[in-house]
Write a structure and sequence with these properties.
The protein is of the alpha+beta class. The protein has a domain of about 80 residues: Sandwich (HSP40/DNAj peptide-binding domain). It is built from eleven helices and 17 strands. The strands form seven sheets. A four-stranded mixed beta sheet has the order 10-11-17-14. It has a three-stranded mixed beta sheet with strand order 1-9-8. A hairpin with a 2-residue loop joins strand 15 and strand 16. The termini are far apart. About 20% of the residues have low confidence.
């Protein structure tokens, strides 16, 4: 199996930044433009581009590391681990990976349970299983593209009122130069020497066989020619994308909006994945919300707190008049029924919290008057 770590000259625990830095250094050194008519440099450039294509992508790197582990275990380790060098935990982890039920994973892009079985067990050991309906591999089967999850911040008013919006987000998307192929337009691909074009490699022991996507071509069965310079052969770039969304009124932070078909492109003609936008509602200088209820805080004078009065209060749609009863304390809340948010056809309320403003910088005469007043009403 090709050792991508050795090709780039990095350790297995190298960070993404370290891998990227090393790749750029090597790519600059062996780039065909810097080495015209040098076939060895051209071959070396293709090797380091291929290695970077795998090691720079967390998902591809994880798959490659798994294959290296399984491949190494096939030899001397198989007596301890069982067929093909796999332990039971290894096989179960493969089930989890193919079905999408990995730790921290939320979305899947894979088919039925039969597809999961067929991608792991070849016909050699399980040809008659379930009536022989299982496929021999998933290399050529159409698969749905990966879903994309992105955060989007919207103003408080948009969350309250809802409506259609056009937004710009930065997400990973197909490279516009190579159209997601990872290959320089016009260059040709060759049959993968690792899997001989099958897209899968098989580790066997006796009547038991385990088949996995080829780590070199990543299940495509072909090795790309000259890697696309814009995306370094990954087929994807990170950049802005303009999308139109419909924001439901009353949406809260943490909720997701699904945009069907705007995720990563499918594999082998499969449908694209979906784009999920996780909503983050911006704070507001006047309002805050708890569920379908709206809250605000307004100041009142000491006179209004003691004697009562009327004040103007801002709501989501208009200004209303609120009566302040005599003897109101700071922090006291008043309910405005039905002036909150409408969520699922049920409208909440607005609560107004008053804050009594105490006069500052009193004159000596004002202080004396207040002391007389305090003595009169029994204030300590």
């Amino acid at each position: 199996m090709t050792d991508y770590y050795k090709i780039l000259g990095v350790s297995e625990d190298a960070t993404t930044d370290e891998i990227k830095k090393t790749y750029r250094k090597l790519a600059k050194r062996y780039h065909p433009d810097a080495n015209p008519n040098d076939k060895q440099a051209e071959t070396r450039f293709k090797e380091i581009s291929e290695a970077y294509n795998v090691l720079s992508d967390p998902k591809k790197k994880q798959q490659y590391d798994t294959m290296r582990k399984f491949g190494a275990g096939y030899g001397a380790g198989r007596a301890q681990k069982g067929a093909a060098g796999f332990s039971f935990d290894d096989i179960m982890s493969m089930f989890g990976e193919r079905s999408g039920f990995t730790k921290g994973s939320r979305f899947t892009g894979f088919g039925s349970f039969a597809d999961i079985f067929s991608s792991i067990f070849s016909e050699k050991g399980f040809g008659g299983f379930a009536g022989g309906d299982f496929k021999t591999g998933m290399a050529d089967a159409p698969r749905k593209g990966d879903d994309i999850l992105a955060d989007i911040e919207i103003p408080f008013e948009d969350a309250v009122n809802g409506g259609k919006k056009t937004i710009k987000i930065n997400i990973e998307q197909p490279c516009d130069r190579c159209h997601g192929s990872g290959v320089t337009p016009g260059s040709k691909a060759t049959v993968c020497p690792e899997c001989k074009g099958r897209g899968t490699v098989t580790f066997s022991h006796g009547s038991f066989a385990v088949s996995r996507p080829c780590p070199r071509c990543l299940g495509r069965g072909q090795i790309t020619g000259n890697p696309c310079r814009k995306c370094s052969g990954r087929g994807k770039i990170f950049g802005p994308k303009v999308v139109k969304i419909n924001i439901p009124s009353g949406i809260e932070s943490g909720k997701k909006i699904r945009l069907k078909g705007l995720g990563n492109p499918g594999v082998n003609g499969g449908p694209p994945g979906d784009l999920y936008l996780k909503i983050i509602v911006s704070g507001h200088q006047y309002f805050w919300r708890e569920g379908k209820d709206i809250y605000c805080r307004v100041p009142i004078s000491l006179r209004q707190a003691i004697l009562g009065g009327k004040i103007k209060v801002r709501t989501l749609t208009k200004q209303v008049e609120l009566k302040i009863p005599p003897g109101t304390s700071s922090g006291q809340r008043f309910r405005l029924k039905g002036l909150g948010l409408s969520v699922n056809g049920v409208r909440g309320d607005q609560y107004v919290e008053v804050k009594v403003e105490v006069p500052k910088n009193l004159t000596e005469q004002q202080k004396q008057l207040f002391e007389k007043f305090a003595d009169n009403v029994g204030l300590n």
